[in-house]
Amino acid sequence: MSTVNTRPARAGFPQAFAVFAECLLTGVWIAVAALPLVTLPAAFAAGAAHLRRHLGHEAGGVRRFAADLRAAARRGWLTGLVLWAAAALVWADLAVVRAGELPGGAFAGAVGVLALLALAVAVLRAAVAWRPGASWRALTAAGLRRTFVDPAGSLVLVCGFGVVAASWWLSPPLAAPALGVLTAASLATTHRLSD
Questions:
Q1: Which of the four pLDDT bands, split at 50, 70 and 90, describes residue 153?
Q2: What's the pTM?
Q3: Pseudo-torsion of CA 50, 52, 54, 59, nearest 10°?
Q4: What does the domain layout of the chain look like in residue ranges?
Q5: Which residue ranges run through the membrane (predicted)?
Q6: Taking burial as the number of CB atoms within 10 A of a residue's CB, which of 10, 33, 135, 195 is the most buried?
Q7: Distance of CA 111 to CAs 84, 98, 159, 183, Å?
């Protein structure tokens, strides 16, 4: 009588942990690359490209990440500028709402915050879909469509923003690796929608 081994194979854990560790390292690279602020979408694009290569067992590393960052930043900095301008506009709107100088201010503030979250999710989805030579305008439009077509995935990414913010609040250095986890979550939502 033969026995069936029902214990899980241990080979899966080291591989899964290696992917997690790569996500954390990629988050640190993204944080460093995003220090100029307008390069945030390009940093996410380079991070997503690095994680795709890692998952595909292709050669990668910091040099490939830097090359992807340079390629993505050629036009991606404009997307980053628009994102930060929208954030500044919502910040100003919230300041006016807090001052009580806007009729229906609470509703206007809530709409502004939701619009900014939708734009941030769309830009993150665009960054994950980026490939060399792709148009950021077309990617952002497609990311905005996917934001509304896949509300569950968008909610996952908004929760990911919350994890990054909570990590920053607890200890600012923890936010850097959390950016890599957010990038991996965005990759996962992209694959989930295409399946």
A1: very high
A2: 0.87
A3: -70
A4: 12-194
A5: 28-51, 72-92, 104-128, 148-169
A6: 33
A7: 17, 15, 18, 26
User: 60 CB contacts (<8 Å, ≥6 apart)?
Assistant: 50, 53, 54
Contact 157, 165 (CB under 8 A): no
**What average pLDDT does the structure give for the chain?**
89
pLDDT band for 59, please (50, 70, 90 cuts).
confident
CA–CA gap between residue 124 and residue 137 (Å, rounded): 13
d(CA 84, CA 37): 8
- Picking from 86, 2, 73, 79, the residue whose alpha carbon sits closest to that of residue 42 is 73
Q: Give the Cα separation of 15 and 3 in Å (integer).
A: 27
Q: What's the pLDDT at 11?
A: 57
